[in-house]
Design goal:
The complex is a heterodimer of chains A (about 350) and B (about 160).
Chain A: H1 23-29, E1 34-39, H2 47-58, E2 63-66, H3 78-87, E3 92-97, H4 103-115, E4 120-124, H5 145-158, E5 174-179, H6 189-199, E6 203-208, H7 212-224, E7 232-237, H8 243-252, H9 260-268, H10 272-289, E8 295-298, H11 307-314, H12 316-326
Parallel strand pairs in A: 1-2, 1-8, 2-3, 3-4, 4-5, 5-6, 6-7, 7-8
Chain B: H1 2-10, H2 12-28, H3 30-36, H4 38-57, H5 105-115, H6 138-156
Helix pairs in contact in B: 4-6
Classes of the chains: A alpha/beta (about 350), B mainly alpha (about 160).
Bound molecules: iron/sulfur cluster (SF4).
Iron/sulfur cluster binds next to helix 5 of chain B.
Chain lengths: ~350, ~160
């Protein structure tokens, strides 16, 4: 086990000023409260299915996330969706998971995506294959989210692959990562966030938040460590369709923590779907008041049609319009990454 | 063995001290190792390393040991082979997303690091695994690398 010299610390040199200045990055840097939303990928080869879903999201969000076989279920690939979206002029966040492809495939995909106009990337480890529709698949996990971040950063900033081979035109990417403040070990989570930032993360989209006190504790530590000034944190939210769905999600989808009071509240409601939406709106409003948070990421699984009204009702956009009229970012929300 | 592995992490403080002594001994004997020839030693060392670390840590012989940086909890026992911290799927009881009957190796690692009194090292970034090194001795690799470094240093002087 004497090993300290074997690999040593792998510290990619930080270049905080890098910017690809896509729409998402511009909004975040301007200090406006950002909104991103997840597109449910179609099980089809028809581009129209992507556009139909994007249309309802695009009116209210700064970027659309294209998931990469999330939950280990096969759907249209994130590269495919991102390319379609970019071609149609939508800002998108391409998610890349380490579960299904090794480093050779991933680096190639990133060049391909950048060539097609993708400028935001979310680096994920990915759920295990056991939760998906094909649990008999071979899990790859050649990289993990952090080594993936460092890899893309090296491609972008140093213009080379992991092997050291040169890239003639490096990919311009605004780099993101996920965070889950709601899974143990809780005191490790902020440390892991710091690691992701060191590895290259410029923005963070968290897992679903249903537990504000837990988020509060996490953010307190994050602020103590000064991490909210080194990256933009977008908190994940989403409407629950019913108490039954919430229970199912809690026990079947890894990493989603739904406290009992939320489920009780849903159960007591006459119209559970409407209540689920109301909870989501309230969460967004409360999250917005929390210090150090740069935006929300809405994941409305199979309920995309709700996203626009959730955003409207939360009042975020109205507040943004006011900010724009005043001509200055609200104090405390303006953040300038490295500049 | 799972219960031995957990015992090792529970005693990460003491064990890591023992290991440090062992490490010092290994480096002291490097000239001897070099004289014998590293490649000739690969097989016997691999055998001993596999036995000792297999028993104590359920070592998988990835050939690029990270144990001292992961609270003596072997990250290669993670079904996703995560080497930089826990995934987001850790269950509320601290067990693994993929194997519900197993404690997440990173929940263990965090505890082990605390017992070793070092929460700094675990915050460092690990490079991707070099898959060519599977099955090889990482002890020998370190000893060899030290010698080479030293030689390079001597040559410069
Ligand atoms: S829960 Fe822990 S052991 Fe299981 S896959 Fe995630 S990081 Fe690995």
């Amino acid at each position: 086990m004497p090993n300290d010299d074997l690999s040593g610390a792998w510290t990619p040199t930080p270049r905080d000023n890098h910017s690809s200045r896509g729409r998402l990055e511009r909004v975040l840097r301007s200090g406006r409260f950002a909104v991103t939303a997840e597109l449910n990928p179609p099980d089809s080869a028809n581009p129209q299915d992507v556009y139909d879903r994007a249309l309802v999201l695009a009116q209210v969000c700064d970027a659309i996330n294209a998931t990469d076989a999330s939950g280990a279920n096969v759907h249209m690939s994130s590269v495919g969706i991102s390319a379609l979206l970019a071609r149609a002029g939508y800002a998108c966040v391409m998610q890349v998971s380490c579960r299904d492809r090794n480093r050779i495939a991933i680096q190639g995909d990133i060049l391909g995506a950048a060539a097609m106009g993708v400028s935001n990337l979310l680096c994920l480890t990915g759920d295990g294959v056991q939760v998906g529709d094909q649990p008999d698949a071979k899990p790859v996990f050649d990289l993990d989210s952090i080594s993936l971040l460092a890899t893309v950063r090296r491609m972008r900033d140093d213009g080379e692959f992991l092997s050291g081979r040169k890239i003639t035109t490096p990919p311009e990417m605004f780099l993101g990562a996920a965070a889950n403040p709601f899974a143990p070990p809780y005191d490790f989570r902020p440390v892991r966030l710091a690691k992701k930032i060191t590895a290259g993360a410029q923005f963070i989209q968290t897992n679903y938040c249903f537990d504000l006190p837990r988020l509060g504790e996490y953010m307190a530590r994050v602020r103590e460590m000064g991490l909210h000034e080194k990256c933009f944190i977008l908190v994940g939210v989403g409407p629950l369709a019913s108490a039954r769905a919430a229970r199912w999600i809690r026990s079947n989808v890894p990493g989603i923590h739904i406290p009992d009071p939320v489920i009780t509240r849903l159960e007591g409601a006459e119209d559970q779907k409407a209540e689920g939406k109301r909870i989501c709106v309230e969460l967004i409003q409360q999250i917005r008041e929390m210090d150090g948070i740069a935006g929300v990421h809405i994941m409305a699984y199979r309920q995309e049609e709700l996203v626009a009204s959730i955003v409207e009702e939360s009042g975020i956009l109205a507040a943004r319009r006011l900010t724009a009229q005043a001509g200055a970012p609200r104090t405390g929300r303006g953040r300038h990454l490295g500049d | 063995m799972y219960f031995v592995r957990r015992w090792s992490v529970r005693h990460a403080g003491k064990l890591s001290r023992v290991y440090r002594v062992f490490e010092a001994l290994l480096f002291l004997s490097t000239p001897l190792l070099k004289l014998t020839g590293f490649s000739r030693l690969e097989r016997p060392t691999r055998f001993i390393e596999r036995g000792a670390k297999g028993l104590l840590f359920d070592c998988r012989m990835c050939g690029q040991c990270a144990l001292t940086r992961t609270g003596l909890s072997c990250p290669m026992n993670c079904p996703k082979e995560m080497r930089n911290g826990p995934c987001g799927g850790v269950r509320p009881d601290g067990n693994c997303e993929v194997k519900p009957g197993m404690r997440c190796v990173w929940v263990e690692a965090w505890r082990g690091a605390a017992r070793m009194g070092d929460l700094e090292t675990i915050a460092g970034i690990e490079p991707p695994v070099d898959h060519r090194l599977w099955g090889r001795s990482s002890w020998l690799a370190v000893a060899r690398e030290r010698t080479e470094k030293k030689q390079a240093g001597d040559a410069k002087r």
